[in-house]
Design goal:
The chain is α/β, with parallel strands linked by helices and 143 residues long. It has five helices and five strands; from the N terminus they run H-E-H-H-E-E-H-E-E-H.
């Protein structure tokens, strides 16, 4: 399995990516976005309404764009990646959602351009739910 790399990315205000605050504490939903992409905007809108569900799954939502697309809701961490390093490192194109466990191990990576956006959002949330219910030592589900 592949892990989300801890690239030196910054928020629009210049703060470093919160990798240390997330590592071993939070599951991660990561959007590799493009500001011209309507499905990417739809994901941001969907995530904006999922605060309680993300908290219950001990999950953080991160959106990586080349530059600030504007209008990103509170609760979603926005990171700028003008060179597309994250997409390149993961072998993913813009318009992809990544679901990873608290150790940043990727559980699922899905393109928003291959399926209905709402289905992809639900599917990646289910992967986060599974990651939250899996034993860290053996990988067996604990439900």
């Amino acid at each position: 399995m592949m892990n989300i790399p801890l690239l030196d990315l910054k928020t629009p205000s210049g703060a470093p990516a919160p990798w240390k605050d997330l590592w071993q504490k939070r599951n991660v939903l990561l959007l590799i976005g493009d500001e011209e992409c309507a499905p990417c905007r739809k994901v941001l809108d969907a995530w904006a309404g999922l605060g309680d569900e993300l908290r219950s799954e001990h999950a953080a939502a991160l959106a990586i764009f080349p530059r600030d697309p504007g209008g990103v809701a509170d609760g979603i961490v926005l990171l700028e990646d003008p060179d597309g390093r994250m997409a390149e490192a993961l072998g993913a194109r813009p318009g992809t959602i990544v679901a990873a466990d608290r150790y940043f191990e990727i559980q699922q990576c899905e393109s928003l351009h291959d399926r209905d956006v709402d289905e992809v959002v639900r599917d990646t949330l289910e992967w986060i739910d599974l990651a939250e219910r899996t034993c860290d030592e053996c990988g067996v589900s604990t439900w």
